[in-house]
Amino acid sequence: MLFGMLEIQRSLVDSIVAHARADHPDEACGVIAGSIGSDRPERLIPMVNAVRCPTLYEFDSMDLLHLYREMDDRDEVPVVIYHSHPATQAYPSRTDITQASEPDAHYVVVSIRETGPAEGPFEFRSFRIVDGEVTEEQISILE
Amino acid sequence: MSIEVRIPTILRPYTSGEKLVRAQGVTLEEVLNDLEVNYPGIGERIIDENGLRRFINIYVNDEDVRFLAGLQSVLGENDSITILPAVAGG
User: What is the value of pTM for the model shown?
Assistant: First the structure.
């Protein structure tokens, strides 16, 4: 069952997929910041996957501090936190669920398992992850 | 000594929603213990039996305490502490 909704611009979806392909075979990760309370993803910030791994991601701790300072200064929050699954389905892994730390964020998982770094079909799904509970959401793409 | 501590969203249920609180201590460990006294339950979300939890980052000003003296890091009058959970997954 789907609750909630992520509304996101097509250009942001395209940028996330492009980032996933560029970082293949490692996981790509990043956030889309938006104004506090708006629930509207606006500013894409691709992050470095500090562990450079096909099955894990983690923001570098100093990058994380600078990211949150910058969002604070701009009255933004991480509306979307995204990462890629280069070889598996676009569904949160057990690690994704235990480590999810932003109850108000939309967790986007993009899978490029069919094509790898090449153009072609991808899976793009969004979830809430709160207290270990995963709830998938509908996605409305704004042209 | 009273130190300013920035609380991340996920721990704000313990601080009645407050983003910025103050706690007493000369070392980071003392500050965290004082946080636990005032906001019961918050401590075990930050430290476990091995010390600072793997997926919690704490910064004194602009320094990750893992590159300082960890929980034994000594604080100064105007230092501020930021707690941020890692953004990580698989």
Answer: 0.94
